[in-house]
Design brief:
CATH class of the largest domain: Alpha Beta
CATH superfamily of the largest domain: Response regulator
Strand content: 15-25%
Shape: elongated
Number of strands: 12
Strand order of the largest sheet: 2-1-3-4-5-11
Order of helices and strands: HHHHEHEHEHEEHEHEHEHEEHEE
CATH topology of the largest domain: Rossmann fold
Radius of gyration: 25 Å
Number of helices: 12
Helix content: 40-55%
């Protein structure tokens, strides 16, 4: 395999000139750059990624840490982030913490040992110990979807409170008053905001909130199935459901069908985020959809800026809040 010394010898230039030319740096004439690139291509020379990494202090890898890669939202996020970083000649290392907050610090330490240039993360943990860890981390980090209290990091998200406010207001306009809310753990940033959106819409409309109809299903389809099956077995059933995630909406729909109820005839159903093949699921679920492409593009652009800027790590943190949109399906009816 050809070395940089071989390329320099054949091109008749110094090794440092080859290095600068192939990295697009230095006061080198276009003709010299073109000659060096042609010689390198003829000889099959590839710059040493390891050597470049040692010189920069990091490589061209970017960590993407997600809580549940099986969630369609995160799948779309991964695809769009990968597209942006690939155009910048970087590559993703994807880590799935399987919704276990205790795995997050270990995952971040592994990425640091791989000398990644930066990390995009959708965290689950939101405790003081994890916040303290993030405040001391020596790698640029952009948080996406979930925030962590007490840190100063770039953060990209949708207006989470608005997602459930829009769904709840829509159901109230249809005449529903006994509305069930399926949410996540209240210590999760996104779960807390979506619960707040539901409560704000109910209170603004003067609708009493039944505490028994606010249930935690951990953004999990199976847990949502169990909770909805339990609620539909009660004499005084909810007439509508706001599911704070797509997987919980699917679990709720399965429970409605399995118990012999009709959606939307007996129970109206809404959810946050679409699902794959959503158009063939009957009825098509009314959802509030987050602009995943926008979130991914901003997060990827910001981490690349942090990596590429010498003073990037010290720059003030930024927040980007995207606006979701309501998509009316066939899963809701008037009372």
């Amino acid at each position: 395999m050809a070395t940089i010394r071989d390329v320099a010898r054949r091109a008749g230039v110094a090794i440092s000139t080859v290095s600068l030319a192939l990295n697009g740096k230095g006061p080198i004439s276009p003709a010299t750059v073109e000659r060096i690139q042609a010689v390198a291509a003829q000889m099959g020379y590839m710059p040493s990624v390891m050597a470049q990494s040692l010189k920069r202090g990091h490589n061209r890898l970017i960590g993407l840490v997600l809580g549940d890669i099986g969630n369609p939202f995160f799948g779309r996020l991964l695809r769009n982030v990968d597209s942006v970083v690939a155009e910048a000649d970087h590559m993703l290392i994807v880590a799935d913490t399987a919704s276990h907050p205790e795995r997050e610090i270990n995952t971040l330490n592994q990425l640091r040992r791989h000398r990644v240039g930066g990390i995009i993360m959708a965290p689950l943990s939101n405790d003081p110990a994890f916040a303290a860890y993030l405040r001391e981390i020596d790698v640029p980090v952009v948080l996406i979807d979930q925030y962590v209290d007490g840190v100063r990091l770039d953060y990209v998200c949708s207006d989470n409170e608005l997602t459930t406010t829009m769904l709840t207001e829509y159901l109230i306009r249809l005449g529903h008053r006994r509305i069930c809310y399926l949410g996540g753990q209240p210590n999760w940033w996104t779960a807390r905001l979506r619960l707040a959106g539901f409560r704000a819409a109910m209170q603004a409309s003067g609708v009493n909130i039944d505490p028994d109809l606010e249930v935690v299903a951990d953004f999990d389809g199976e847990k949502a199935y169990d909770q909805v099956a339990r609620l539909l077995s009660r004499p005084k059933r909810p007439t509508a459901i706001v599911a704070a995630s797509n997987l919980m909406a699917l679990g709720a729909l399965q429970a409605i069908n399995d118990l012999g109820f009709s959606c939307p005839g007996d129970v109206s159903l809404t959810g946050v985020d679409d699902v794959p093949w959503g158009s063939v699921i009957k009825p098509r679920i009314t959802t509030v959809v987050q602009p995943v492409e926008e979130l991914a593009q901003v997060a990827a652009a910001w981490i690349l800026e942090r990596i590429g800027s010498r003073g990037g790590a010290a720059a003030p943190p930024r927040t980007h809040v995207a606006i979701p949109r309501l998509v009316i399906g066939e899963s809701c009816s008037r009372v």
